[in-house]
Amino acid sequence: MSNTSVVTPYEESESTSRSVVEAEDLAGGGIAEAIGEIAAFFADRDADRASDRVSAAVRGQQTADDFRRRRQTQKVPLVSVNLHLADAGSLLRSAPEAGFRLTSRLARPKADLLVLENPRGERLVIEQARVGGVRMHAVGTRAPINDLMRQHTLDRALEHLRNSGREVMSQTLASGEVQILARGGSEASTGELHAQIRQDGSSVLDVVGAQGPKCMELVRGFAEATGGVITETVKKAEYFTRPGELRRNKVRA
Asked: What is the pLDDT of residue 77?
């Protein structure tokens, strides 16, 4: 193998399991309030629908009042992650395949908030900053974030590898991780790519048979296509062999 690398779509500066109250101190209240409104609305929606006697206007006022009460007495757990993506468009392309549908858009002075929901009732919010940059938020659990990011990495990886002329095979494991094997292409010297996409959307890549810098070119192309960065690389013997040069293996006498 030429190298083994780890690619992640997440920035190091992540905020996890913060409450709405704590998040308000960080975000000036706009994003936290919107996510709190979403959580309160969905928590009350099923109960409200059971009574046809309550009008839509009254139901909305009850939801707002209930949210204000609960903000004073309890914290809503919040999971937030920062992504290396500049635009949320590719996430929205992968959302239906991951089981999510867009339910609403909330405009804020510095960002648009896109609310998604899956059939299990799990919701997440994609925050698209107006100056560029994407964050994702979920209430109570990181599972919906992981589901969308795994699908996003898989979709963008398959697009990239197939567009490069490679023969691509993929298999989903019982763990939920996805294995990809890509071979062929315009140059035989580029070798094979073995990718393992983790449940959170990060990837472990093994490049087999490539010589010199070709292996890193393949890894960098994968990272760029999936909206990630390379966080770790271990170079193997083939990396230090120039094209056409024979490898010299040490033999114990």
From this structure: 75
